[in-house]
Amino acid sequence: MSKRYVFLDPDGSGTERGWAFVVVAAPTGVVYQTQGGGFGCVPYEQEGCLIHLFGRDLDDDLKAIFVGELRGQGARGLDWPTPLLDRLRDAVAEFRVYGSANRDDTWPAVLALDESRLPEADEAWVPVLTPDGPGYLAWENSD
Hints:
It holds the Pfam family DUF6210. This is DUF6210 family protein. By secondary structure, this protein is of the alpha+beta class. It is 15% helix and 39% strand. It starts with a strand and ends with a strand. The model has no long low-confidence stretch (mean pLDDT 87).
């Protein structure tokens, strides 16, 4: 079976709207792609299930870290100073996933930073743990 590719926000029409998604890794045949890494404009992709995250100003804390503190330079392979890592953990934990393939209820589950994959973290592409397994938190890149 051939794979299908879906680019998140391909034309930038989501700019300044605060969108955010989680792509949960799974063999679905659908690969979600996005641009991350700040001014580096790094292409990222993950095959899996897309979960839309709802709310206003969803990415404000993440932008404060990646655009403010790190100045849009990206963060792949960064040796995270403890205070900044704590802020990243807290920012990721603000996101809630409603429903899950592993749960029968709709109570929200908190996302967690997947620190085993921390070297992969970059602006607009952060490894997370969900109730359904590993995935990536994606949001608007600052370039």
